[in-house]
Amino acid sequence: MSVSSRDLVAKKMAQLIRAGGATLTSYTCPVCGTPLLRLKTGEYYCANCDRPVVIVRSDAEEKEVMIKYGLMDIRDTLYERLVMINNELKETKDIDRINELVKSMVLILEAYDKITQIINQGSPGTSTKAEKK
After folding, report:
1. Count of alpha carbons within 13 Å of 49, Cβ hemisphere only?
2. Using one digit for the tens of pLDDT, what is the confidence trace for 106-127?
3. What gap in Å lies between CA 99 and CA 30, rounded to an integer?
4. Which residues contact 95 (CB under 8 A, 6 or more apart)?
5. How many other CB atoms are found less than 10 A from the CB of residue 45?
6. Which residues pair with residue 39 across a beta bridge?
């Protein structure tokens, strides 16, 4: 990280702290090593990576979180496929193709709903461990 980008990150962190929206923690980002901020919402945040980081305290919790975020990625992919099918559905006039597309949409929506239910039953987390200094 260059000096100027470090300065920008430090300024961003200082602004969040001064505004009362965050406090500095003893944890560091597992990706870049920047000290993490704890936001008013309770989330941990890396100002350098510009992303939330959730602290996991055990390998079992980390595995659970990795599964959850993997499922969220699958759900995002399903949504993207729904958009693609919808775009094709708008253009097609062939009734057999429309029928195929609608069947595909129904299957994807069922999978999307099931994955969402599984995600919502689990506990929050992230796939990386923060380091305590």
Report:
1. 16
2. 999 999 999 999 988 864 444 4
3. 48
4. none
5. 21
6. 22
